[in-house]
């Protein structure tokens, strides 16, 4: 892990901030700006005449027959020392550059590893979001059922109360009728039971009156009996209905208790999912912080590499020709490292990293991302998201793919680096745009995921990538 690592080598004299570049390195021998025209074009010819790298002037043909005096031994010793110093300087420079390369590759590997971890974290967060959404839907559905059950319970309670009133009313009627019958029975008892009825019959004035009295007594007895039986029958029906309603109420009450228990269980499961999601989000933030630290280390490393090169060139300062292929490659490596590093601002790196917070917390909406309400709610289309990220870095760019593709500088896909814009032919040519983040991945707002990291080296995005890469200067 390279986070927070400070290089401590004798070749390094500068440790400040620069901008990261993650990209392929091609070595094209380039002589530094301090080299002379003779160094640029005449390395081989200058070395063909002498093995001494400090050879200044080729031997001239003598104009007379005098013999050249013997060389001064002291000068020869000085030349050998200078040659050794040159070789040591070149060796030191190449060794320092190799250490820089190793460190650079290590940081790039860590960044790639972190990107892969973020992809997994992104998938985990999406999984948790889906589960939490399902739990929330289940809670909503259960709440609806619980409320419906409560309404049914309330309705049944009202029906039970109504039946209880009817039963009470019938009971009052039965009780009143019973009191009448009891009063009659007491009267019969006081008058010797049925004798009174006999007297009623015997006391008839004629047969017709007798028949009428017999019918009246029979009717009275029958009416009392029928009324009592009817009231008893009605009372039984009400009691049966009340029993059914009570049984239904008991079932609804049990159902309510069951749903409330189920609801509590779902709420607890959602709480656990929230806890897990929070843990994953903390891990995501840690990974983002680590990536930011890696980028900072890489920027520092690029400046250190530049310092090594400048030290070497200052020591050379026209004293010798740089004719070693490995030395030339080292110079070009550092030049390329410094050039690519300077193309991405600190603000853009920070803005891109900060935009990772939208991963799993956004939705794709065509034409969105161009006002504060959309931004606050994570609503973006692809170009709206790119526009927002660059705006956060203080860089003004267009907000459509057609304008974005015509901004900045078009570069070959083999040289793309962190922060470059990459284009894809989806529903139209250059129909989709994202921000390259290294390792074959880009960050963008996709219709199926919202803001997410996607792999453009395989599958759909590999097929749709059209090779257009734009670097915003």
Question: Could you explain the architecture of this structure?
Answer:
The protein has about 475 residues and is of the alpha+beta class. It folds into two domains: about 20-30 and about 80-340, Helix Hairpins (Orthogonal Bundle); about 345-473, Alpha-Beta Complex (endopeptidase fold (from Nostoc punctiforme)), CATH 3.90.1720. The chain is about 65% helix and about 10% strand. The two termini are about 30 Å apart.
Topology:
Elements: H1 37-41, H2 43-48, H3 73-190, H4 195-202, H5 207-316, H6 325-341, H7 346-354, E1 363-364, H8 372-376, E2 379-380, H9 382-392, H10 401-404, E3 409-411, E4 421-424, E5 432-438, E6 441-446, E7 450-455, H11 459-464, E8 465-471
Parallel strand pairs: 1-2
Antiparallel strand pairs: 3-8, 4-5, 4-8, 5-6, 6-7
Top CATH class of the largest domain: Mainly Alpha
- Outline, from the CA principal axes? rod-shaped
Radius of gyration: 49 Å
CATH architecture classification of the largest domain? Orthogonal Bundle
How would you sum up this structure in a few lines?
The chain has helices at residues 37-41, 43-48, 73-190, 195-202, 207-316, 325-341, 346-354, 372-376, 382-392, 401-404, 459-464, and strands at residues 363-364, 379-380, 409-411, 421-424, 432-438, 441-446, 450-455, 465-471.
